[in-house]
Amino acid sequence: MAIHRPPATLRRKSPLPVWLSIGWRIIGVMALLALAIGVHYFDREGLRDTYDGHVSFLDVVYFTAISITTTGYGDIAPVTEQARMFDALVVTPIRIFVVLLFVGTTYNFVLRRTWDKWRMAYIQRHLHDHYIVAGFGKTGSDAVDELIARGVAAQDIVVIDGNAESLAQAEACGCAVLQGDATRDRVLEDVKIGRARALIVSAGRDDTSILITLTARHLSKTIPISVTVKADDNETPARAAGATTVINPVSFAGLLLAGSCTGPHIADYMMDLASINGRIALSERTVAPPEIGKPLSAITTGMGMRIYRDGKPFSFWEDAAKALEPGDIIVEIVPQGAARAKRAAQP
User: Fold this and answer.
1) CA-CA 20 to 30 A from 23: which of 63, 144, 233, 237?
2) Above 60 in pLDDT, residue 180?
3) Element (H, E) at 282
4) pLDDT of residue 268
5) Which helix (H) or strand (E) holds 246?
């Protein structure tokens, strides 16, 4: 069931320390204050002090401070047109800027952090049966697009990436996003990997993808993990790290290219199977009670291609597929319309 919630973002941390950022703001305020004091002192003849009639430097500092802070006791006031125009056209904008500067500081260091923490906590509470995508490069973004096309609600997808621009693209799709390193336990725990439906790993580097897989398997023993690797010799380490499915896009592309040489329609058929826009689709399900004891070729929901029994694959021509048993997993080819109906019926 789709849960409607706003997307979450952990923004890139400012390279400036908090104390230095606040310090620059204070310096900016003091510079504006010094500018106003300097002009007021230069034009002090345009001010009138109702207390003693004399405007000293301290009187100018006092008058400038209460003017910028909008206190305005009235004991010192501008009396010449020049002084009044300076207060109206210069001091008033300075006053507004100073107020906005302090309000912005309060928002950045107090309100925004409090809001972000509350929003993250809210989203985390509602993360159930979601999909986690670690890495939003070309492959990761294509995977997200395909999931959405297959009927997965965008808000049920959480994207982890270290690149702010990539996260902005994922956020524009409606996904929840988290900026961080998916090899860290804390990051995967923040996206509630223990309650996720599946994890897709596409970090762009095989070593990073394998480390993410290892970390994820350490945190969740049951979550299905699909990982992409570029080198053939990294497929075994990826499986050893705990990947449920290992995909080598380079090898797959090579298979399509080789197949297209022997038959012009083979590659087209493979793409038809893989894409949501194709006429047919591969579907995986558990054997139904009425099908137990029957051969794989007798199923009526689609064309049975393979079964998995105790984790081992058996194709439709093998003896094991001649009599289905309880617990068998059936991989079948079905019309795309039936596949969509099945996905829509899933909770």
Assistant:
1) 63
2) yes
3) strand 280-286
4) 77
5) strand 245-247
- Model confidence band, residue 28 (pLDDT cutoffs 50, 70, 90): confident
Q: Which of 269, 3, 299 is nearest to 157 (CA)?
A: 3
* CA triple 315-320-324, angle to 5 deg: 100
To which H or E segment does residue 158 belong?
strand 157-161
Question: 10 Å Cβ neighbour count for 278?
Answer: 16
Quote the CA–CA distance of 3 and 130 in Å, as a whole number.
10
The verdict on pTM exceeding 0.85 is: no
SS3 206: helix
pLDDT tens for residues 209-246?
A: 999 999 999 999 999 999 999 888 898 999 999 999 99
Q: Where are the alpha helices (DSSP H) in the chain?
A: 18-42, 57-68, 81-86, 92-106, 112-125, 138-149, 164-172, 185-190, 206-219, 235-240, 249-262, 266-274, 336-345
